[in-house]
Amino acid sequence: MTSSHDRTDAALGIEGVLLANRDRIVRFLQVRGAGDAAEDLFQDLWMRLTDRPMGPVADPLPYVMRAANNLMLDRYRSTRQSALRDHAWGEAAAGHEPSAETALISREQLLLVESAITRTGERPARIFRRFRVDGASQRAIASEMGISLSTVEADLRKVYATLAALRRQFDAS
Question: Which residues form the RNA polymerase sigma-70 region domain (predicted)?
Answer without folding.
Answer: 22-80
